[in-house]
Amino acid sequence: MKDQEITVTLTQTKKEKLPADQLVFGKTFTDHMFIMDYSTENGWYDPRIVPYQKISLDPSTMIFHYGQSVFEGLKAYYSQDGKIQLFRPEKNFERMNRSNDRLCIPPVDEEFVLKALKELIVVDQDWIPTAEGTSLYIRPFIISTEPYLGVSPSEHYKFMIIMSPVGSYYKEGINPVKIHVENEYVRAAAGGTGKAKTGGNYAASLRAQANAEEKGYSQVLWLDAKEKKYIEEVGSMNIFFKIDGEVHTPVLNESILEGVTRNSTIQLLKHWGINVVERKISVEEIYEAHAAGKLEEAFGTGTAAVISPVGELFWNDHQIVINDGKTGEISKKLYDTITGIQTGKVEDPFGWVVEVGEKQETVQSK
Ligand SMILES: *Cc1c(COP(=O)(O)O)cnc(C)c1O
Protein backbone atom coordinates (compact mmCIF):
# COMPACT_ATOMS: atom_id res chain seq x y z
CA MET A 1 0.00 0.00 0.00
CA LYS A 2 2.70 2.42 1.12
CA ASP A 3 4.26 2.91 -2.32
CA GLN A 4 1.02 2.99 -4.29
CA GLU A 5 0.66 6.18 -6.24
CA ILE A 6 -2.40 8.32 -5.66
CA THR A 7 -3.75 9.45 -9.02
CA VAL A 8 -5.33 12.89 -9.18
CA THR A 9 -8.14 13.94 -11.52
CA LEU A 10 -9.06 17.60 -11.08
CA THR A 11 -12.58 18.91 -11.55
CA GLN A 12 -13.48 20.91 -14.66
CA THR A 13 -16.27 22.77 -12.88
CA LYS A 14 -15.36 24.31 -9.54
CA LYS A 15 -18.31 24.80 -7.21
CA GLU A 16 -19.38 28.14 -5.81
CA LYS A 17 -18.31 28.71 -2.19
CA LEU A 18 -20.69 30.02 0.46
CA PRO A 19 -19.68 32.91 2.74
CA ALA A 20 -18.56 31.81 6.24
CA ASP A 21 -21.78 32.95 7.94
CA GLN A 22 -23.92 30.76 5.68
CA LEU A 23 -22.03 27.51 6.14
CA VAL A 24 -24.25 24.67 7.34
CA PHE A 25 -22.57 21.63 8.86
CA GLY A 26 -22.38 18.70 6.47
CA LYS A 27 -24.41 20.09 3.58
CA THR A 28 -21.78 21.49 1.26
CA PHE A 29 -18.77 19.53 0.14
CA THR A 30 -15.48 20.49 -1.45
CA ASP A 31 -14.60 19.96 -5.12
CA HIS A 32 -12.75 16.67 -4.65
CA MET A 33 -12.83 13.42 -2.71
CA PHE A 34 -10.45 10.56 -2.04
CA ILE A 35 -11.51 7.02 -2.82
CA MET A 36 -9.91 3.57 -2.91
CA ASP A 37 -11.30 0.08 -3.26
CA TYR A 38 -10.76 -3.23 -1.53
CA SER A 39 -11.18 -6.78 -2.69
CA THR A 40 -10.00 -9.95 -1.00
CA GLU A 41 -7.80 -10.69 -4.05
CA ASN A 42 -6.16 -7.24 -4.32
CA GLY A 43 -6.29 -5.73 -0.84
CA TRP A 44 -6.73 -1.93 -0.94
CA TYR A 45 -6.12 -0.71 -4.49
CA ASP A 46 -6.55 2.19 -6.94
CA PRO A 47 -6.19 5.11 -4.50
CA ARG A 48 -7.35 8.26 -6.25
CA ILE A 49 -8.38 11.87 -5.78
CA VAL A 50 -11.31 12.61 -8.08
CA PRO A 51 -13.96 15.31 -8.48
CA TYR A 52 -16.62 15.00 -5.72
CA GLN A 53 -19.22 12.72 -7.26
CA LYS A 54 -21.97 10.20 -6.73
CA ILE A 55 -21.14 6.54 -6.44
CA SER A 56 -23.23 3.83 -8.01
CA LEU A 57 -24.09 0.65 -6.07
CA ASP A 58 -26.22 -2.39 -6.79
CA PRO A 59 -29.41 -2.53 -4.66
CA SER A 60 -28.17 -5.80 -3.17
CA THR A 61 -24.96 -4.17 -1.90
CA MET A 62 -24.30 -5.37 1.64
CA ILE A 63 -24.00 -1.92 3.23
CA PHE A 64 -27.71 -1.26 2.56
CA HIS A 65 -28.79 -4.40 4.38
CA TYR A 66 -26.40 -5.18 7.21
CA GLY A 67 -24.74 -1.86 7.95
CA GLN A 68 -21.11 -2.91 7.86
CA SER A 69 -19.48 0.52 7.97
CA VAL A 70 -17.15 2.71 10.02
CA PHE A 71 -16.43 6.42 9.98
CA GLU A 72 -14.20 9.11 11.46
CA GLY A 73 -14.51 12.85 12.03
CA LEU A 74 -11.70 15.40 12.28
CA LYS A 75 -10.98 18.94 11.13
CA ALA A 76 -8.40 21.00 9.25
CA TYR A 77 -7.72 24.59 10.30
CA TYR A 78 -5.87 27.57 8.96
CA SER A 79 -3.35 28.82 11.45
CA GLN A 80 -2.88 32.55 11.87
CA ASP A 81 0.31 32.45 9.82
CA GLY A 82 -1.38 30.71 6.89
CA LYS A 83 -0.42 27.11 7.59
CA ILE A 84 -2.89 24.27 7.26
CA GLN A 85 -3.09 22.23 10.46
CA LEU A 86 -4.62 18.93 11.54
CA PHE A 87 -5.20 17.97 15.18
CA ARG A 88 -3.87 14.51 16.15
CA PRO A 89 -5.09 12.91 12.88
CA GLU A 90 -3.12 9.70 13.55
CA LYS A 91 -5.48 9.10 16.49
CA ASN A 92 -8.45 9.03 14.13
CA PHE A 93 -6.90 6.46 11.81
CA GLU A 94 -5.78 4.30 14.75
CA ARG A 95 -9.35 4.38 16.01
CA MET A 96 -10.68 3.63 12.53
CA ASN A 97 -8.64 0.44 12.51
CA ARG A 98 -10.00 -0.53 15.94
CA SER A 99 -13.51 0.05 14.58
CA ASN A 100 -12.61 -1.94 11.47
CA ASP A 101 -11.53 -4.87 13.57
CA ARG A 102 -14.84 -4.91 15.47
CA LEU A 103 -16.85 -4.72 12.23
CA CYS A 104 -14.77 -7.35 10.36
CA ILE A 105 -13.57 -4.71 7.90
CA PRO A 106 -9.96 -5.08 6.67
CA PRO A 107 -7.51 -2.58 8.21
CA VAL A 108 -6.17 0.44 6.32
CA ASP A 109 -2.51 1.51 6.24
CA GLU A 110 -2.68 4.39 8.74
CA GLU A 111 0.31 6.27 7.33
CA PHE A 112 -0.93 5.92 3.79
CA VAL A 113 -4.45 7.21 4.46
CA LEU A 114 -3.01 10.17 6.39
CA LYS A 115 -0.81 10.93 3.37
CA ALA A 116 -3.87 10.65 1.11
CA LEU A 117 -5.80 13.00 3.39
CA LYS A 118 -3.00 15.58 3.28
CA GLU A 119 -2.92 15.43 -0.52
CA LEU A 120 -6.69 15.86 -0.72
CA ILE A 121 -6.54 18.86 1.62
CA VAL A 122 -3.83 20.49 -0.49
CA VAL A 123 -5.96 20.01 -3.64
CA ASP A 124 -9.00 21.58 -1.93
CA GLN A 125 -7.15 24.02 0.31
CA ASP A 126 -9.08 27.05 -0.87
CA TRP A 127 -12.14 25.41 0.74
CA ILE A 128 -10.76 25.80 4.27
CA PRO A 129 -12.62 28.78 5.72
CA THR A 130 -10.50 31.38 7.48
CA ALA A 131 -12.98 33.23 9.74
CA GLU A 132 -12.72 32.79 13.51
CA GLY A 133 -14.17 29.48 14.69
CA THR A 134 -14.54 27.98 11.21
CA SER A 135 -12.79 24.88 9.86
CA LEU A 136 -12.91 22.15 7.27
CA TYR A 137 -14.68 19.07 8.60
CA ILE A 138 -13.20 15.81 7.31
CA ARG A 139 -15.16 12.57 7.08
CA PRO A 140 -13.17 9.41 6.27
CA PHE A 141 -15.41 6.33 6.05
CA ILE A 142 -15.61 2.76 4.81
CA ILE A 143 -18.62 0.86 3.49
CA SER A 144 -19.06 -2.75 2.42
CA THR A 145 -19.73 -2.88 -1.33
CA GLU A 146 -20.19 -6.52 -2.27
CA PRO A 147 -23.53 -7.20 -4.00
CA TYR A 148 -24.74 -10.15 -1.91
CA LEU A 149 -27.62 -10.70 0.51
CA GLY A 150 -25.72 -13.22 2.64
CA VAL A 151 -24.85 -12.31 6.21
CA SER A 152 -21.06 -12.45 6.29
CA PRO A 153 -18.20 -9.98 6.09
CA SER A 154 -18.19 -8.36 2.65
CA GLU A 155 -15.38 -9.22 0.24
CA HIS A 156 -15.41 -5.70 -1.23
CA TYR A 157 -15.17 -2.25 0.38
CA LYS A 158 -14.76 1.40 -0.49
CA PHE A 159 -12.74 3.81 1.67
CA MET A 160 -13.61 7.44 0.99
CA ILE A 161 -12.77 10.86 2.40
CA ILE A 162 -15.17 13.75 1.87
CA MET A 163 -14.77 17.24 3.32
CA SER A 164 -17.23 19.96 4.30
CA PRO A 165 -16.45 23.57 5.31
CA VAL A 166 -18.12 24.37 8.64
CA GLY A 167 -18.99 27.64 10.31
CA SER A 168 -18.49 28.41 13.97
CA TYR A 169 -20.28 25.94 16.26
CA TYR A 170 -20.90 28.73 18.74
CA LYS A 171 -22.13 31.69 16.74
CA GLU A 172 -23.30 33.53 19.86
CA GLY A 173 -20.52 32.37 22.19
CA ILE A 174 -20.39 29.09 24.11
CA ASN A 175 -23.85 28.12 25.23
CA PRO A 176 -24.58 25.57 27.98
CA VAL A 177 -27.12 22.94 26.91
CA LYS A 178 -30.04 21.17 28.61
CA ILE A 179 -29.62 17.42 28.85
CA HIS A 180 -32.21 14.66 29.34
CA VAL A 181 -30.96 11.60 31.22
CA GLU A 182 -32.23 8.60 29.23
CA ASN A 183 -33.83 5.89 31.36
CA GLU A 184 -35.49 3.80 28.67
CA TYR A 185 -33.25 3.40 25.64
CA VAL A 186 -29.55 2.58 25.58
CA ARG A 187 -26.92 3.51 23.02
CA ALA A 188 -24.68 0.49 23.43
CA ALA A 189 -24.09 -2.47 25.69
CA ALA A 190 -20.97 -4.32 26.79
CA GLY A 191 -20.02 -6.76 24.04
CA GLY A 192 -21.83 -4.66 21.43
CA THR A 193 -20.33 -2.04 19.12
CA GLY A 194 -20.29 1.03 21.40
CA LYS A 195 -16.51 1.28 21.27
CA ALA A 196 -16.52 1.40 17.48
CA LYS A 197 -17.45 4.44 15.39
CA THR A 198 -20.06 2.75 13.25
CA GLY A 199 -23.32 4.02 11.76
CA GLY A 200 -25.46 1.48 13.60
CA ASN A 201 -24.73 3.12 16.96
CA TYR A 202 -26.14 6.36 15.59
CA ALA A 203 -29.23 4.65 14.18
CA ALA A 204 -29.81 3.16 17.65
CA SER A 205 -29.57 6.60 19.27
CA LEU A 206 -32.12 8.48 17.14
CA ARG A 207 -35.33 7.52 19.00
CA ALA A 208 -34.07 8.72 22.39
CA GLN A 209 -32.60 11.86 20.83
CA ALA A 210 -35.91 12.68 19.10
CA ASN A 211 -37.85 12.14 22.35
CA ALA A 212 -35.46 14.40 24.26
CA GLU A 213 -35.76 17.15 21.65
CA GLU A 214 -39.53 16.93 21.79
CA LYS A 215 -39.30 17.67 25.52
CA GLY A 216 -37.04 20.67 24.91
CA TYR A 217 -33.65 19.10 25.61
CA SER A 218 -30.80 19.30 23.17
CA GLN A 219 -29.10 15.96 23.97
CA VAL A 220 -29.43 12.68 25.80
CA LEU A 221 -27.22 11.53 28.66
CA TRP A 222 -26.66 7.80 28.12
CA LEU A 223 -26.57 5.37 31.01
CA ASP A 224 -25.07 1.87 31.11
CA ALA A 225 -27.27 -0.78 29.48
CA LYS A 226 -27.26 -3.24 32.37
CA GLU A 227 -28.23 -1.25 35.45
CA LYS A 228 -29.18 2.13 33.92
CA LYS A 229 -27.21 3.61 36.74
CA TYR A 230 -23.79 4.66 35.49
CA ILE A 231 -23.10 7.57 33.16
CA GLU A 232 -21.55 6.73 29.78
CA GLU A 233 -21.73 9.58 27.26
CA VAL A 234 -23.70 12.69 26.33
CA GLY A 235 -25.17 12.62 22.80
CA SER A 236 -22.15 11.74 20.71
CA MET A 237 -19.68 13.28 23.13
CA ASN A 238 -17.72 12.08 26.14
CA ILE A 239 -18.66 13.68 29.45
CA PHE A 240 -16.79 15.29 32.35
CA PHE A 241 -17.83 16.60 35.77
CA LYS A 242 -15.91 18.99 37.98
CA ILE A 243 -16.64 18.03 41.58
CA ASP A 244 -14.99 19.75 44.51
CA GLY A 245 -11.95 20.87 42.53
CA GLU A 246 -11.33 17.51 40.79
CA VAL A 247 -12.46 16.44 37.33
CA HIS A 248 -14.25 13.09 36.98
CA THR A 249 -15.07 11.23 33.76
CA PRO A 250 -16.49 7.75 33.12
CA VAL A 251 -13.71 5.18 32.80
CA LEU A 252 -13.58 3.69 29.29
CA ASN A 253 -15.46 0.44 28.84
CA GLU A 254 -16.93 -1.67 26.02
CA SER A 255 -19.81 0.73 25.38
CA ILE A 256 -18.01 4.08 25.48
CA LEU A 257 -16.40 5.58 22.41
CA GLU A 258 -12.92 6.86 23.19
CA GLY A 259 -12.85 10.44 21.95
CA VAL A 260 -9.69 12.19 20.79
CA THR A 261 -11.03 15.33 22.50
CA ARG A 262 -11.56 13.31 25.72
CA ASN A 263 -7.96 12.16 25.64
CA SER A 264 -6.69 15.69 24.93
CA THR A 265 -8.86 17.13 27.71
CA ILE A 266 -7.46 14.68 30.27
CA GLN A 267 -3.88 15.44 29.22
CA LEU A 268 -4.45 19.21 29.41
CA LEU A 269 -6.12 19.06 32.83
CA LYS A 270 -3.24 17.00 34.22
CA HIS A 271 -0.77 19.42 32.63
CA TRP A 272 -2.49 22.21 34.58
CA GLY A 273 -2.14 20.26 37.81
CA ILE A 274 -5.82 19.37 38.09
CA ASN A 275 -6.59 15.90 39.40
CA VAL A 276 -8.50 13.77 36.84
CA VAL A 277 -10.34 10.68 38.05
CA GLU A 278 -11.50 8.06 35.52
CA ARG A 279 -14.05 5.80 37.18
CA LYS A 280 -17.61 4.53 37.14
CA ILE A 281 -19.90 7.48 37.95
CA SER A 282 -23.56 7.01 38.87
CA VAL A 283 -26.17 9.69 38.08
CA GLU A 284 -27.23 9.48 41.68
CA GLU A 285 -23.91 10.68 42.99
CA ILE A 286 -23.89 13.57 40.51
CA TYR A 287 -27.23 14.63 41.98
CA GLU A 288 -25.83 14.20 45.50
CA ALA A 289 -22.76 16.28 44.64
CA HIS A 290 -25.11 18.95 43.32
CA ALA A 291 -27.20 18.86 46.50
CA ALA A 292 -24.03 19.21 48.56
CA GLY A 293 -23.00 22.24 46.49
CA LYS A 294 -19.95 20.40 45.12
CA LEU A 295 -20.89 19.95 41.48
CA GLU A 296 -19.04 22.85 39.90
CA GLU A 297 -19.15 22.13 36.16
CA ALA A 298 -20.23 19.54 33.61
CA PHE A 299 -19.25 19.44 29.95
CA GLY A 300 -19.18 17.19 26.89
CA THR A 301 -16.15 16.80 24.61
CA GLY A 302 -16.06 16.02 20.88
CA THR A 303 -14.56 17.21 17.61
CA ALA A 304 -17.64 19.15 16.46
CA ALA A 305 -18.26 21.37 19.51
CA VAL A 306 -14.86 20.77 21.18
CA ILE A 307 -16.31 21.59 24.63
CA SER A 308 -20.06 21.72 25.24
CA PRO A 309 -20.98 22.90 28.75
CA VAL A 310 -24.00 21.26 30.40
CA GLY A 311 -26.25 23.82 32.07
CA GLU A 312 -29.08 21.55 33.16
CA LEU A 313 -29.78 17.85 33.78
CA PHE A 314 -33.19 16.20 33.96
CA TRP A 315 -33.48 12.71 35.47
CA ASN A 316 -36.50 10.91 36.93
CA ASP A 317 -38.56 14.12 37.16
CA HIS A 318 -35.74 15.95 38.94
CA GLN A 319 -34.03 18.89 37.34
CA ILE A 320 -30.71 20.33 38.43
CA VAL A 321 -29.05 23.51 37.19
CA ILE A 322 -25.26 23.42 37.07
CA ASN A 323 -23.13 26.53 37.69
CA ASP A 324 -26.26 28.74 37.34
CA GLY A 325 -26.61 27.51 33.76
CA LYS A 326 -23.42 29.35 32.83
CA THR A 327 -20.20 28.21 31.17
CA GLY A 328 -17.69 27.25 33.86
CA GLU A 329 -14.11 28.42 34.15
CA ILE A 330 -12.51 25.08 33.26
CA SER A 331 -14.88 24.53 30.32
CA LYS A 332 -13.95 27.93 28.93
CA LYS A 333 -10.23 27.44 29.51
CA LEU A 334 -10.30 24.02 27.82
CA TYR A 335 -12.25 25.40 24.86
CA ASP A 336 -9.87 28.34 24.41
CA THR A 337 -6.77 26.19 24.79
CA ILE A 338 -7.81 23.34 22.48
CA THR A 339 -9.14 25.63 19.74
CA GLY A 340 -6.06 27.84 20.30
CA ILE A 341 -3.70 24.90 19.71
CA GLN A 342 -5.73 23.78 16.68
CA THR A 343 -5.40 27.18 15.06
CA GLY A 344 -1.85 27.92 16.15
CA LYS A 345 -2.80 30.75 18.53
CA VAL A 346 -1.71 28.83 21.59
CA GLU A 347 1.59 26.97 21.94
CA ASP A 348 1.28 23.20 21.47
CA PRO A 349 3.30 21.56 24.27
CA PHE A 350 2.22 18.04 23.30
CA GLY A 351 3.11 17.88 19.59
CA TRP A 352 -0.57 17.42 18.70
CA VAL A 353 -0.59 19.63 15.63
CA VAL A 354 0.31 18.10 12.27
CA GLU A 355 1.10 20.53 9.49
CA VAL A 356 -0.28 19.88 6.03
CA GLY A 357 1.54 22.66 4.26
CA GLU A 358 1.64 26.35 3.57
CA LYS A 359 -1.13 28.10 1.77
CA GLN A 360 -0.13 28.38 -1.89
CA GLU A 361 -0.08 31.81 -3.54
CA THR A 362 -2.00 30.65 -6.59
CA VAL A 363 -5.09 29.64 -4.64
CA GLN A 364 -5.28 32.66 -2.35
CA SER A 365 -8.89 32.82 -1.21
CA LYS A 366 -10.96 35.60 -2.71
C1 LIG B 1 -17.05 10.57 17.72
C2 LIG B 1 -17.67 10.32 19.04
C3 LIG B 1 -17.21 10.95 20.23
C4 LIG B 1 -16.17 12.04 20.25
O1 LIG B 1 -14.95 11.66 19.72
P1 LIG B 1 -13.89 12.79 19.27
O2 LIG B 1 -12.76 11.98 18.75
O3 LIG B 1 -13.54 13.56 20.48
O4 LIG B 1 -14.56 13.61 18.22
C5 LIG B 1 -17.81 10.58 21.43
N1 LIG B 1 -18.81 9.68 21.47
C6 LIG B 1 -19.29 9.09 20.36
C7 LIG B 1 -20.39 8.12 20.49
C8 LIG B 1 -18.74 9.39 19.11
O5 LIG B 1 -19.23 8.80 18.02
Looking at this protein, list some descriptive labels.
binds pyridoxal-5'-phosphate, single chain, alpha+beta, 2 domains, nine-stranded mixed beta sheet, D-amino Acid Aminotransferase, Chain A, domain 1, 7 helices
Poorly predicted parts: 362-366
The helix content is: 10-25%
Number of helices: 7
Q: Tell me the name of the CATH homologous superfamily of the largest domain.
A: Aminotransferase class 4, branched-chain amino acid transferase, N-terminal domain
Task: Give the SSE string.
Answer: EEEHEEEHHEEEHEEEEHEHEEEHE
* Name of the top-level CATH class of the largest domain: Alpha Beta
- Mean pLDDT score: 95
Bound ions, cofactors and other small molecules, one mention each: pyridoxal-5'-phosphate
Query: In angstroms, what is the radius of gyration?
Result: 21 Å
CA(first)-CA(last) distance: 37 Å
Counting structural domains, the number is 2
Second CATH tier, the architecture of the largest domain? 2-Layer Sandwich
DSSP strand content = 25-35%
Query: What is the makeup of the main sheet?
Result: 9 strands, mixed
DSSP summary, beta strand count: 18
Task: Output the CATH topology of the largest domain.
Answer: D-amino Acid Aminotransferase, Chain A, domain 1
**Structural shape:** globular
Q: What structural class do you assign from the helix and strand content?
A: alpha+beta
